[in-house]
Amino acid sequence: MSTDTQPKGPASYFLSIEKTYGQPVAYWLGLLAKKPGLKHMELVGYLKAGHGLGHGHANALVAHHLNAQR
């Protein structure tokens, strides 16, 4: 029986996001929280255009953010 402690889903990107962009995940989630009412791809575009995140990283943050709101 293995005890897999690796994050799954969007959270699996978090370590890479923090290393690549030099900010904790809480920082990025805080930015997203300041943009209520935007749809998934609008938020992804905001992170990509406004903050230079790659598509996969932005998508993971947005998916986590929106899932936490549900």
Which terms summarize this structure?
globular, single chain
What topology does this entry show?
Elements lengths: L13 H8 L3 H9 L6 H12 L3 H15 L1
Helix pairs in contact: 3-4
Q: Please tell me what the overall shape is.
A: globular
What is the N-to-C succession of helices and strands?
HHHH
Main beta-sheet strand count, sense and barrel state: none
Ends distance: 32 Å
- Which stretches are poorly predicted, pLDDT < 50 over at least 5 residues? none
β-strand number:
0
Enumerate how many helices there are, as a single number.
Answer: 4
Tally of discrete structural domains: 1
Write a structural description.
By secondary structure, the protein is mainly α. The chain has one domain. The protein contains four helices and no strands. It has helices spanning 14-21, 25-33, 40-51, 55-69. The chain starts with 13 loop residues before the first helix and ends with a helix. The model has no long low-confidence stretch (mean pLDDT 93).
What can be said about this structure in brief?
With 70 residues, this protein is an all-alpha fold. The protein has one domain. The chain contains four helices and no strands.
